[in-house]
């Protein structure tokens, strides 16, 4: 990203959580003139050592009143925690009169998730509560979802856990979803129920942090309900082929029809094979377009404002950088 310009009034920004994504995001936010507060369950000296200008507060995410006190004077709150703790955070933010809340979504677009979502981790409840408070008068609290598709880091050595990401997602390990580059293996549903090639959007977590920081630079007052960002977009077949080409080895690829994957999921449910059941639910969600979208409105907005330089990383670049080119 180019040197930051002070295009907005200085804000006080709170970041809830201290995992890998929070750390990467805090690094980006600390480059601005905004005051940054990190809320965490425990101390994290690495934050303050690497970013001496930020403030870290140890809080109990089960204590709404304690959270409300910690959020006094905060303009923008970005959550990286899911579940009941995020619901408490939303409640506390509204009581503290936080102006804008960014929930812990950072995956596919909200509109592509089913009403009865087997992969839901409290997202539906959080978004419903945010809708309620956004319409409450006086002191409505606005919110914006940042959608980025899949983190490219899912496919890194060791999976998401190597980046301290995805602790509650069920896809921490390198063999938990779609492609295991270390084992040169993949498992996909190639076509959607309508017969179209299944596509996914991919964005590096480091670019997601840059996108969010750049959006903040533009100012959150007129943010839409959802910002969509994209590093790359491809079919799942091309994703596997890219990994194979970069590694220079053929991949063992299991290709399911949509109907076969449904039957497999039902079999796993009947036999209480829950890890495998979740695996097939993720494949089915991918085939249903959960991690894909056409228009990346945040890319377009930031390109117009010349705020994303260099551009977001493409997937092949990322694989080459992480795994090393076989050429």
Q: What does this molecule look like?
A:
The protein is an alpha/beta fold and 327 residues long. The chain has 2 domains: 12-150 and 202-232 and 292-313, NAD(P)-binding Rossmann-like Domain (Rossmann fold); 153-199 and 234-287, no CATH class. 36% of the residues lie in helices and 16% in strands. It is built from 11 helices and 14 strands. It has helices spanning 20-29, 45-50, 64-70, 83-95, 123-134, 205-218, 236-247, 258-270, 274-287, 297-304, 315-323, and strands at 12-16, 35-40, 55-58, 76-79, 100-102, 142-143, 145-147, 150-151, 179-180, 185-189, 199-203, 226-228, 232-235, 252-256. The strands form 4 sheets. A 6-stranded parallel sheet has the order 3-2-1-4-5-6, with helices on both faces. Strands 8-11-13 form a 3-stranded mixed sheet. Strands 9-10-14 form a 3-stranded mixed sheet. A hairpin with a 4-residue loop joins strand 9 (179-180) and strand 10 (185-189). Helix 7 (236-247) runs parallel beside helix 11 and helix 8 packs antiparallel against helix 9. The chain is globular and about 55 Å long. The two termini are 29 Å apart. Residues 1-7 have low confidence and may be disordered.
Q: How many whole angstroms does the radius of gyration measure?
A: 20 Å
Beginning-to-end CA distance, first to last residue: 29 Å
By CATH reckoning, the class of the largest domain would read Alpha Beta
Task: Supply the CATH architecture of the largest domain.
Answer: 3-Layer(aba) Sandwich
CATH topology of the largest domain, by name, is: Rossmann fold
Name of the CATH superfamily of the largest domain: NAD(P)-binding Rossmann-like Domain
Number of domains: 2
Task: Please tally the helical runs, counting DSSP H or I stretches of 4 or more residues.
Answer: 11
Question: Strands of the largest sheet, in order across it?
Answer: 3-2-1-4-5-6
Written as H for each helix and E for each strand, in order along the chain, the element string is EHEHEHEHEHEEEEEEHEEHEHHHH
Helicity, in percent?
25-40%
Shape category: globular
Helix/strand/pairing category: alpha/beta
Taking pLDDT < 50 over at least 5 consecutive residues as the criterion, the unreliable ranges are 1-7
Note the main sheet: 6 strands, parallel
Let me know the average pLDDT. 91
Which strand-content bin applies to the residues? 15-25%
E-strand count: 14
């Amino acid at each position: 990203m180019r040197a930051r310009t002070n295009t907005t009034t200085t804000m006080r920004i709170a970041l809830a959580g201290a995992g890998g994504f929070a750390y990467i995001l805090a690094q980006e936010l600390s480059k601005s003139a905004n005051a940054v507060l990190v809320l965490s369950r425990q101390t994290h000296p690495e934050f303050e050592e690497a970013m001496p200008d930020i403030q870290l507060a140890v809080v109990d995410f089960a204590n709404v009143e304690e959270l409300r006190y910690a959020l006094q004077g905060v303009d923008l709150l970005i959550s990286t925690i899911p579940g009941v703790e995020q619901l408490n955070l939303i409640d506390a933010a509204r009581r503290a009169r936080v102006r804008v809340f960014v929930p812990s979504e950072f995956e596919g677009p909200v509109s592509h998730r089913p009403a009865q979502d087997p992969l839901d981790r409290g997202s539906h409840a959080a978004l419903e509560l945010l809708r309620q408070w956004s319409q409450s008068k006086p002191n409505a609290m606005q919110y914006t979802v940042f959608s980025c598709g899949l983190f490219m880091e899912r496919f890194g050595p060791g999976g998401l856990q190597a980046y301290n990401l995805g602790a509650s997602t069920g896809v921490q390990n390198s063999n938990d979803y779609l492609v295991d580059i270390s084992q040169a293996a993949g498992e996909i549903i190639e076509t959607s129920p309508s017969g179209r090639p299944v596509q996914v959007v991919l964005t590096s977590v480091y670019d997601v942090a840059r996108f969010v920081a750049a959006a903040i630079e533009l100012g959150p007052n007129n943010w839409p309900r959802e910002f969509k960002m994209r590093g790359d977009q491809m079919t799942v077949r091309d994703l596997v082929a890219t990994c194979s080409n970069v590694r220079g080895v053929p991949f063992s690829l299991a290709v399911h029809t949509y109907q076969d994957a449904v039957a497999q999921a039902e079999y796993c449910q009947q036999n209480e094979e829950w890890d495998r059941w979740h695996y097939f639910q993720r494949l089915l969600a991918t085939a249903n377009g959960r991690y894909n979208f056409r228009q990346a409105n945040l890319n377009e907005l930031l390109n117009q404002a010349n705020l994303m330089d260099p551009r977001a990383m493409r997937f092949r670049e990322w694989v080459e950088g992480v795994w090393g080119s076989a050429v």
